[in-house]
Structures
1.
Amino acid sequence: MGALQIDVAIIGGGAAGLMCARVAGLRGRRVLLIEHAERVGKKILMSGGGRCNFTNTGTTAANFISANPHFCKSALARFTPQDFIALVDRHGIAWHEKELGQLFCNDSSSQIVRMLLDECAAAGVRVETRCSVAQVQQRDQGFVLTTTLGEVHAQALVVASGGLSIPSMGATGFGYVLAHQFGHAVRATRAGLVPLTLSGTHQQHYQDLSGVALPVEARCNGQRFRAGMLVTHRGISGPAILQISSYWQPGDDLRLNLLPDCDVFEALREQQRAHSDAELRTRLAELLPRRLALRLCEIGLPNRPLRQYREAELRAVAAQMESWPLVASGTEGYRTAEVTLGGVDTDALSSTTLQSRHVPRLYFIGEVVDVTGHLGGYNFQWAWASGHAAGSAV
Ligand code: FDA
């Protein structure tokens, strides 16, 4: 059997790969999309609690972490959340805004995968699942891929194999291996948007509070996120913690404002005026989840009848609650992380086309690149935008 001759081979049938295949196919390119799992778009399917938070209408470069914070701008400007919404609308997929510009499908994330597959079919893209690539070689101005399908000769190669998070969903480090092979630097990778773990006395302080949830403002390394927090058996989770986890590394100072929605000193003063004989812990239990309020008074806050606090002491209690230290020992790792921080260094990629500066007709798109979004639909928007940029150029 002779080698398969195509224009564009795309490794990875996730969000970025599907979008790139569609756009390149619509431009008349012969495209082969190679996915080693049994189906494409597995992360899309599991995303957003099964409803896929497919974009965020407030997307800006400030929502992304990268060694070069400007790199993502060009692609994001040329394929916007409105462009993706227009596509979703054309396919009659009903959606709603949950909060802060986060858009979700009303019914199921499978609608997004169906949409992308239909678009790929209309664009003549050949999609091969359960197909692995053993090696890639550069030859005759193009690439030769040794795959389970046989030899594939492609004029251009797009690496869209994603990051390392959730290996059980098909994640591999193959994109980084290819990057190294073709002389690209890869920035150190680590789990992002991931629950934090506690250990030792810090775990003992909180583990029996598992299930307690409250709004907090989490702060670390100059970043702050106000959202929900959840205490788990092993540590802490919830949107505020997932967001700050992308900025935290072991040893970093992590602080929580436990009452982010009010002036804590004024709230305590109000309690003191109205209930001067009550103990601090009893009145804190009116402001915070009860089990947490009692625990805070066991492990850090002085507990006395409120009338005994002078103003300076009440201010000190308020300051403690606004800057509660949380000593995390690590993260849950790639097993549960939503994204991988780091990846293919953007220095050697064109920000307009995502093409390699070292190797002509080699592209890297999506999460394999050192561009990582905050929680809230930004990561898919980067996948669509970078896929669109490469698909328009390849
Ligand atoms: P993606 O990981 O989607 O695709 C890569 C593909 O390459 C996979 O299909 C993989 O199997 C394949 N592959 C890997 N190695 C290969 C190889 N050697 N050969 C062939 N194929 C290979 N983001 C967001 O914006 N909104 C949300 O709601 C969520 N929710 C969410 C939930 C969960 C549980 C996770 C884990 C992640 C999210 N995300 C998210 C993040 C989002 O899923 C992620 O950023 C994008 O899927 C990245 O798209 P890519 O196409 O780059 O990688």
2.
Amino acid sequence: MVIVMGPQATGEDVEAIVAIVQAAGVEAFVSRGVQRTIIGLVGDVEQLDAPNLRSMPGVADVMRISTPYKLVSRDNHPERSTVRVGGVPIGPGTVTLIAGPCAVETPEQTLEAARMAKAAGATLLRGGAFKPRTSPYAFQGLGEAGLRILAEVREETGLPIVTEVVDAHDVELVASYADMLQVGTRNAQNFALLQAVGQAGRPVMLKRGMSATIEEWLMAAEYIAQRGNLDIVLCERGIRTFETATRNTLDVSAVPVAQRLSHLPVIVDPSHSGGRRDLVLPLTRAAVAVGADGVIIDVHPNPAQALCDGPQALVDGDLEELAHLLRTLPPVLGRALVGDVLTV
Ligand code: PEP
Ligand code: MN
């Protein structure tokens, strides 16, 4: 961390800063220039309160040199990571398709959606049993009964399960069924939940908070990592902007930015980004082209009757095009669809 003093700063201002940082066990190196004084800090600067320092007399700016997240940072881990979910890799060099219904509704609907997902090339099945709904009157998910259906469908199809957990108290229960725990956008800064999934012994898919900066997203991942779990996949799912034509705005640039800052795999959710079926394939194309390590896509056998997010679910007629896209685009970019018999 570097503290830049303003031209009007006095010797006492500098001494006051030095006293504060030294009291915190951090070393301070003062460089006095003709115009300004700069104080370089070395040591555990995380415990210093940067906004407080910035507000002290004579201070012009406080700049971080290293990132505030450590375990998920690429600084200390230059190689990009691969996370394995029930044996299925998500990471560099490949594209992994996760697909399934937004919500588990019935055994038949879930099995049929899983069949659709598999036909499109999916190697992981998504499906929510605990749904984080904006309205308390909307379908909240089947809870444990939904988890049991997912487990049966896994048995039937061989697809490992990705499913959301919305409450820290349910982590143990959901982890007893799931191959990967999903933390959704509405819980992306629920720190108690992040800590609980950090201890659950399962890989975690962490969606980006709908209004979170990339740094806040990575700090949320750091909460999980700090509890000992580095099997984290970041998921860009669109952010809230002034645009109302789409449900959210897919932040395409977040993919390479997050991949540069963090060693964790980054996937994209084109379904929840656009919120519209007709946008899913174009946004999937964008996601793969920009370097996403996978995509997570809603499919439903009968979207008109879906209890959650029907308008964005792909139907049978869309699957061939999705499968074609995921088999043809990644190889052009030197990558392969995971599970693709033609390319593995
Ligand atoms: C979901 O994937 O079912 C979901 C609720 O997504 P998000 O948290 O991105 O809204
Ligand atoms: Mn949904």
